[in-house]
Amino acid sequence: MNTIIRLKIKKDIDTATEKKILKLKGYLIAQSFTDLIHYDDEDEDNYTHYFTAEASKRKEIVAYIVSYIHEMDIAEVVTIP
User: Fold this and answer.
1) Helix (H, G, I), strand (E, B) or coil at 72
2) What is the CATH number of the domain that holds 45?
3) What's the number of domains the chain is made of?
4) Could you list the residue range(s) of the whole structural domain that residue 29 is in?
5) How far apart are CA 6 and CA 50, in angstroms?
6) How open is the CA angle 14-72-25, to the nearest 5 degrees?
7) Radius of gyration (Cα) for the chain, nearest Å?
8) What CA–CA distance (Å, rounded) separates 18 from 47?
9) Is the pLDDT score of 68 beyond 90?
């Protein structure tokens, strides 16, 4: 069974932060956690990026994302709602 994992990402970010977010999404795809990451406008200030993953890997994926967010110091820009 699959689960949906969502990321809330601010729209107004600098180039360096955008590269960090792209690196995160690239890792998620490279590790075969997902094949495709979608995004929608959430509101004026944020996007929602989301992807499906195996429910059994959800904890591993979320743990990596949280670790990455803190390591790259982008907690003000990326959150898991």
Assistant:
1) coil
2) 3.30.70.1130
3) 1
4) 2-79
5) 4
6) 75
7) 12
8) 13
9) yes
